[in-house]
Amino acid sequence: MKSARSFFFFTNPLWHLLLLLLLLLLLFSTPSSSTIPTSLFADLERLSRIADIAYCVGNSGVRKPFRCLSHCRDFPDLSLVTTWHTGMLLSDSCGYIAHDPRTSSILVVFRGTYSVTNTIVDLSSVPQPYIPYIPPPTSADDDDDDDDDDDDDDDVRRRRRKFRCENCTVHTGFYQSWQNARRLVLPEVKKLRESHPSATIHLVGHSLGGAVACLAALELIVSLGLEDVHVTSFGEPRLGNVGMARFVDSVFDLLVRDHQDHRAEVDHGGREEVKKEEKKKKKKKKKKKKTSSYRRVTHFQDPVPLLPWDEWGYKPHAGEIFISKAGLSPSPEDLFPCVGDADEECSAAALVAAYDDDDDDDDDDDDDDDDDATEGGKNITGERSRSRSRNKSLTSIFPWPPLFAHRDYFLRLGLCVPGGDPANWGRREQQQQQQQQQQPADEL
Asked: Per-residue pLDDT for 442 more than 60?
C-alpha cells in the first residue's frame, strides 16, 4: 500500500508541476552576477604588480633587462624595451614598455598620479571634442598614387565607417597626457608588433594611467588597425561624455558581451556592420577562446571611478570588474563581473546608497534656500544642493582619506621600494597559498 502511494505521488502530474516550479525558483533566485574564474583573478593580480612597477619610472628607475626596487624580480621572463617620462605636470605621462616572450605579450604600462588629491582637482578640467582617427592628409606632398598608400587609405575609411564616435568629448587632461606620450610609445609598439606579429598587446594603467591606456588602445585599434589589443585598468576615472562611453563599448564589444538587453546600445556604425565584423572575427579566431579585451577593475571604497560627476557630463563605460571586499587582500570570491556601463550592484552602488541616506537632509536644506533659488535665471540652489550631496556622499562612503582606497588593488599601489609597499609584505604569499588551495576545486 505504501509503495502504491509512492508510485502515485511520483507519477502525479501535479508533482511534476511542483518540481518544475521549484527548479524555476532556484534558477531565477540565483544572482545575475557570478564570481570570476581563478585564472582571471590570478591574471588581474599579476597585472596589478606590473602596474605598480610603473611608479618606479621617474623615481628610482626601471633598468634593463628588467630590474627595479619593486616587483621586477617577480617577472624574470620580462624584457624591458624602453621607459618614458614626459615631465612633472598632471598632463604629462610616465611608464614603460616590456616584452614577454613566454606569453608572447607586449606590455605598455602607464603610471598613475602620486597624489589622488591632485588627480581629483584635475578632473574638473573641461572636456574637448574627441576624434578617434588620424585626419586625412591636407598637403599635396602627402598625396601620392602609390598602391600601398591607397590600400592604407581604404583601411582607414573602413575603420571610420565601422567606428563612428558621434558627439564624443574627452577629458582634456587625459587626452593631453596621451598626446604627450604617443610620440614615444607608438613607434616602439609598431616596431615590436612588426618583430612579433602574433604578440598580444596589453595596455595597463592605474588611476590616470588607466584613462591614458584606454585612449592609447583606441588609437591602436581604430586609427592603426591593430588587433589583439587588451586593456586592464585599476581605478580608472571616467574618460568622457556618454558618446565617448558608447564609443569605447562599441570598439571593445563590451555591451554585446555583457547582456542581450544592451545590444542596441552598441549600434554606432550600423547593425549590419557589427554583424559582419562579428562573423569575420569568428572565422579568424575559431580556435581561440574569446575573452573580454577590456577589464576595468574597481572597488566600492575607491571614489575615482565615480569621477568626474554626471553633472559635468561624464559617463562610465562598460567592462567593469568589481572588488566587493573592503580592504586588502581580495580573493576570487570577492570579484564580480558587472553588467552595462553603471551596474548598481557594482561601484555605482555605493554612491546610490549614500544618496538615499542623504535625501531627507537635502530636502530640508532645499526648503530653507527657496528664497534665493535662482540667480540670473539659473537654478543655483539645485546645483549647490547637488554639490553638498556629493560631498556628503563621499564622506559617508569613505570614512578615511581616499588616498589609500584609491591605491588598494590586490596590493597597495604607488610606492617603489623593495618588495613594494611594506603594507603588502606577506600578502602575496598568502594569496598564492589560497589560490593553490582553491585550484583543485576549480578543476573539478
From this structure: no
For 35, 38, 40, 431, the CA distances from 289, given in Å and listed in that order, are: 19, 16, 13, 27
Q: Is residue 433 part of a domain?
A: yes
Residue type for position 80: L
268 and 353: one domain?
yes
**What's residue 203's pLDDT?**
98
Please give the positions annotated as active site.
207, 302, 406
Kindly report the backbone phi and psi dihedral angles of residue 79, in degrees, each rounded to the nearest multiple of 5, phi listed first: -125, 120
β-pair type (127-129, 169-171):
antiparallel
Give yes or no: residues 371 and 339 share one domain. yes
| Separation CA 330–CA 311 (nearest Å) | 32
Helical segments of 81-142, H only: 116-122
CA atoms lying within 13 Å on the CB side of residue 378: 5
Among 38-42, 157-161, 362-366, 403-407, the range with the most confident prediction by mean pLDDT is: 38-42
Read off the pLDDT band of 140 (50, 70, 90). very low
Could you tell me the CA-to-CA distances from 201 to 104, 110, 296, 340 in Å, in that order?
Answer: 9, 13, 16, 25
Say yes or no: 165 and 22 in one domain: no
Which residues are bridge partners to 299 per DSSP? 323
Domain assignment present for residue 148? The answer is no
Helix 271-284, helix 147-162: angle, nearest 10: 120
Q: What CA–CA distances, in Å, run from 318 to 120, 243, 282, 300, 335? A: 21, 13, 22, 16, 16
Torsion sign over Cα 153, 158, 162, 167: positive
Please indicate, yes or no, if residue 89 is contained in any of the structural domains.
yes
- Gap between the Cα atoms of 435 and 444, Å rounded: 14
For residue 12, the enclosing domain spans: 1-30
Find out whether 163 and 269 touch, Cβ atoms under 8 Å: yes
Whole-model pTM: value is 0.73
Residues 25 and 41 in one domain: no
3-state SS assignment for residue 80: strand
Cis check for the bond before 308: say yes or no (omega within 30 of 0): yes
Please tell me whether residues 126 and 191 are part of one structural domain. Answer: yes
Overall domain count for the chain: 2
Question: Residue 143 falls within a domain, yes or no?
Answer: no
